[in-house]
């Protein structure tokens, strides 16, 4: 029964999507830990205290929040195990998927250890930054994994300039994420009153972060116009439009949090927005990248086009 379920493409797709959603979700719960000052709610690792693996009543709500986030790591791992098992069962049908699943499992394990190091180092801002950026890598792996489970792979061959633009936009998006972590590591939300800060001027690094965002938005607008001019498929232009819409929404949230004194609910929304911008960036990159051929023949869309054409031998 279980093996027959794992053999179904729909189970594989849903497990892959669940893994992507869970990876984004745990970034938000991790943000909640930091923004509520619960970063050291469990002051050690892998135990929550020196005597207990779970939170205690004496640790209050900070312990509950921090331990809850740790518990979600096991949920994330369980989803990844199901996705990997389905990928193993369907490895002949979807080549290359198994490797992505293995890397995703390895990344979750690494992220768990890095989280423990972050706690052990009393929320050193540089390890906190690394912890967040490792989550971005996991989101990328989960997104690629989910993308490869889709029935109809891309079939549009983008010009080299468009593919290069997609890579540049992805690189700039990554820079925006890195600068965002520097802003966070320099600001007031340290995760604990005793946690260190980077020492950078928050206003200066915020300006650098904002400048990078403007560059990203400008490049995205330019690529969208380029795709429209080339008559790219609707799904490709939609990927660029979606990225632009998410960027603009994220920019609005960023300005609101900056000019309202960084209230933690708005900062948490900004963290979610960062994940969505990154996911939309990956969607655009894959949309303009060369398509992969599925096992067993041409893509479904290609076959439909061929079936619609008249047979030259009967003309």
Structure description:
There is one protein chain. The protein is built from ten helices and no strands. With 315 residues, it is mostly helical. α7 packs antiparallel against α8. The relative contact order is 0.12.
Q: What is the topological layout?
A:
Elements: H1 2-6, H2 9-35, H3 60-89, H4 97-120, H5 125-148, H6 160-186, H7 202-230, H8 234-259, H9 264-288, H10 300-308
Helix pairs in contact: 2-3, 2-5, 2-9, 3-4, 4-5, 5-6, 5-9, 6-7, 6-9, 7-8, 8-9
The whole-angstrom Rg is: 22 Å
Q: Could you spell the SSE succession in H and E letters? A: HHHHHHHHHH
Total number of beta strands: 0
Termini separation comes to 51 Å
Beta-strand level of the residues, as a percent range? under 5%
Average per-residue pLDDT, rounded, comes to 88
Low-confidence parts lasting 5 or more residues at pLDDT below 50? 293-315
Shape estimate: flat
The major sheet is characterized as: none
Helix content: over 70%
Tell me the number of helical segments per DSSP (H or I, 4 or more residues long). Answer: 10
Structural class: mainly alpha
In short:
The chain is mostly helical.
Q: What keyword list fits this structure?
A:
single chain; 315 residues; mainly alpha; disordered C terminus
